[in-house]
Every structure is written in C-alpha cells, then in structure tokens.
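Researcher: Let's try something more involved. This one mixes different molecule types, so please make sure each is placed in the same coordinate frame as the others.
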Amino acid sequence: MIEGAAWRRWVFFRFPVAIFLIFLLFPFYWMVITTFRPDGELYIPWYRANYKPLWTWNPTTAHLKYLFGETTFITWLWNTTFIAVVATAISLFCGVLAGYALSRLNFRGAALLGTTIFVTYLVPQTLLFIPLSEIIRTYSLGDTPWSLILTYPTFLIPFCTWLMMGFFKSVPKELEECARIDGATRWRAMLYIIIPVAVPGILSAMIFAFTLSWNEFIYALVFLSSPEQKTVPVGVISELVRGDVFFWGPLMAGALLGSIPVAIAYSFFVEQYVSGMTGAVKG
Amino acid sequence: MASVTIKQIHKHYDDFHAVKGVSLEIKDKEFVVLVGPSGCGKTTTLRMVAGLETITEGQIMIGPLVVNDLPPMDRDIAMVFQNYALYPHMSVYDNMAFGLKMRKFDKLEIKKRVENAASILGITDHLNRKPRMLSGGQRQRVALGRAIVRNPQVFLFDEPLSNLDAKLRVQMRIEIKKLHQRLSTTSIYVTHDQVEAMTLGDRVVVMKDGLIQQVGEPLELYNAPANKYVAGFIGSPAMNFTTVQVTNEGGVLYASNPAMRIRVPNALAARLGAHAGKQATLGIRPENLHMATGADNADNSLTAIVEVSEQLGSEVILDVKVADGAMVASVEPTVRVKPGEPVKLALDPSGLRFFDAVTETAI
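Model: All components are placed in one shared frame. Result:
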C-alpha cells in the first residue's frame, strides 16, 4: 500500500487503478451497449447532432432475437462447449501425468524432453495448421468436432505440462517420500497426496486450457466449413459479416454471450486460480 | 523391532562421492545418532536405509533381511522429516491414519491406534484440524504420531527438531527420549547438533566427508575422542587446540609453545613418548581450564589476556588471547575480570589430549 497523505493514495494508487480499469473494461461496455442499441442509432455518422456513442435511451433485444432466430448460434455455443470441454479434459489428463513425470521421475533426458515439449508450444498455430490440415484430410476428420478436439491438444498439452511441471516442483518432495514410506506405491502417492495438493495448479491449467480452446480461431476457421459445425468465434464472424457489411448488433451480442461462460468459469475458480499462479502450497 | 546392519555402503552421485564406505551395526532397541556437519553424508546414509536413495555399493540389512532392493513401503520403517511433511489437505487424524489405510488395516484398529498415539503425544484435541492450523511443535508431534501408529521396526529421524525454536527443541528432545524409553523401537537419528546427539543417543556416530570418524557412547566420545575432528565437534564451547613441541627433558615430557610449557602427566607420557622431539596438537576443553590458584605452578598454567568475558550465571566463558592464538575457558561464575586484564589460567592435567600433528588421530 501507498503510505502517507491522502493525496498520495489518490495520485499513486486510486487514479492509476481507475484508468487501468476503464481501459480494460471499456471493450466490454462497448459490447454490451452495442448489443442493446437499435440499428437506427448504430449506423448514424458521428457528426450528426443526435450521435450518442456511449449510451442509448431506446434499448432493444432485436439483435439477440436475430442471433437466436436467424443464425445457428445455439448450435455454435454447444459445439464450442463440447469441443472445449473434451479438448481440455484430454489435455489436462496428459498434462498432469507428463508434468508429474518430468518434474519427479528423474529419468534420463527428462530435462531435454521438457524443453522439447515447450518448444512445440512455441511453433505458431498459423504455421502448424498447414501440416495439421493435411492430417485432418487424410483421416477424413474435416468439418467434425473431432478435427478440433484432436488438434487443440497440440498446443494445450505443452501448456498444461509446463504449468503442472512448475507446480509439482513447488510441492515438497518429502510429502511423496513420506507417503511411500507410509506404504503407498508411487502411483498411489501421486493419486492420494500429490494430485490433491496440486489442485490449485490443476484448476489454473484447466481454466487456461478451457479459455484457449473456447477462444481458438484459426483451426476452427480452417477445419470447419458448414455453419452447423462452427464454434462461436468462427460462426459469429463468418455468418454475421457478409462481404463488407458488419451486422454490429448481432455480432456484439454473439461476442457478449460467447464471453460469459469463460467469465463464469473464471469467477468460480478465481481463488484457486490465483493461488495456482503464485505456486502457493500451504503446508 | 529389529537390528540394522550397514555394510560398507557407498553412494555416488554423478561426480560426487557422498558416502564412502560406511559400516555400522545397530542393535535392536538401540537409539543411534548420526551427527556431523552438512554434507557429511549422514542424511544420505539415512535415506539409503529408508530406501529413498539407491545404494551404489554395499549392503543394508534390517533384521535378517537384505533391503537393498526393497521399496520404502516394504522395509517396515517410519521416517520423521525435517519439514514434518504433513499432508496439507488431510486432517491430523487422516495424516496419522494414512499409513494404516495404505496397509489396509480395519477402521476400528486404525481409530484405536491413532487415538492411542494422539494421547501419548497430547494432540487428542487437534485430531480434526488441518496441519496449517497447528503450531510448529504440534506439527512435529503429528509427524511423530504418524510414525508411531504404524509400530514399525525402525524409526528414522531426519533432523526433526531443526525447524523449531530453541525452547521447543529442548522440550521435543525430551519427548523423543521419553517416546523411545516407552516404545524401545530401534531408532536412527540424524542431526548436526552435537547437544541432541549427546543427549539422545545410546551411541553416537560422528561423520565427516562421507566417512565415520568415531562410533561410541556419548561420554566415550567426550572423554576419548578418536581424533582432533571428533574432539572439536563434541562439547560446547569447543575444545581448544594449540600446536606444541614435545620435548624429553631428563625423562620428563614437556609440551611447550610460546604461550606455555606444560609438564605431561605420567599417564599420558607413555603414549606420547614416541613423539618426543616432534610437534603435536594439544587439546584442552574449556571446562578443564580454571583460574590458577596457589596449588598450580608453571608446569600446568599459562598467562592470557582477557578479550571477552561472558557471564552465563552458572559459569563464565572467557575468550582469551595467548601468545600464539586464542583460547576459550569456562571458569567459576564468581570470576570477575575486565577485557584487557591479564589472567593466569591453569590446566587440569587429566583433561589434556594430544593428537598427531599430521594424521590428527589421538595419541
């Protein structure tokens, strides 16, 4: 905290925080206001006398109705949820086991393997989708949820593995040694002691993986083509931007509804998430 | 209960030879303390007994069984760790019951044993708490409880008291001693604190650089150290060492240096005789030095200048300067001296120890 006179707190703490918050939250505000603004207000030029960009006195649900009535938004939402949940589950399972192995089993080449896994995470998706699309085509997975469920782990597993590796390293190794002296096999020590202790880390990996797959754009754009297979980010863009016409109302409505599940996931686990990020194990 | 036999064990890490051929016979019900500075191999030795480190070379037996290749769970041992290693997500009860659950004891038996251990250690009121709600001393008790519920053949302690404050350490030391008197389980205790070693051990093993320096009962180590290292390690304040020239003057041995000229008592003279004309290291404990009185003469006394005088109530510790270095003396509490004051100190001849100047072994 800032010590001293009240003006110091205002100048060095409250005012900067306020600026920061406004900067962060403004896009969301814009999203909300556009969702409920009637078309008549959305498409007037800025120099008109009645141009009120930051507020509306005539809120409407027309854009939401359009989104749910005229597009397959519900299907996109379901597709996105299904894909994100399954891809996250696969990645977490692999990531937790791999992270444990790399941080605790001192096998030959563990460090090298860990680095290699990290390097694969560094390959940009914008390059990786080219070979992956070849694989998707070969196995006839194109335009199915599986094309994404099986490709998202290419970046989620390295991510989860690294996060879990760091977390497992922060768990005192005596805990596990003690469990093994107490009569647990390595597997049971991991199951009953190490994993429960690492729950905050697992939750942060889960939230991150879920958010990454929820927001993923390029693979979804490349591997899915029919409207009823699409995910929210791709569906909204491809169905609500026609040529150079942007349907701003439904677009923002889609973006708003699309960000709500992630926001809920965050708020639900935020405490564990924070302790996971700071690597705190209270013993 | 069981004996533990360690035969010529070695531990090599990549390019570090941590334990260099340690052999030790620990009798059934015995409390053995491994003591030494950090990096002396004592913890590694203990971890090899526990099965947490592989044994590069040699053999470890618990009872009649060679355990080299047994996993820790099959060795029937319990270990108390320096940082307690309590399972943070489990209650005290579950922490203590975990080992029994893993070994598939039935619920009633588990409850009986945990409650019994808890009452021995005075933690019955905390059984439902999580470890993070306990104080350091209580955590240490839980860790002890977790070890005793299993009723194992051997207890292993890895510096269990070093995370506690000084007062609690003394208290827990006594608890551990009582616990051993009550349960008589064979115990191996690792510490770097010579006071713990002296007070707890039936026998004490002094280690340095991966080698055993001496094994013996506490008083044996104090009275008859095998070498200069053990002599300096055991006892507090530490033994004073000074280099002396041994001379034979008409059948009487003298040990002299610029600060003193000591007549070697007859009991020692026989062994020291071979060193006449050579240098040796003279060791004298602070408690074997006293303020010279009329009964003392030049043959057993020296003059020193007081640098610091520390009044402890039961004794006064004098840090003094002598001609070729510094010495520490523990004298009567009534002594009042000021820094810079010259004093005459006398040596108790029976407290003299001589060590070979080169090999450092006791003469």
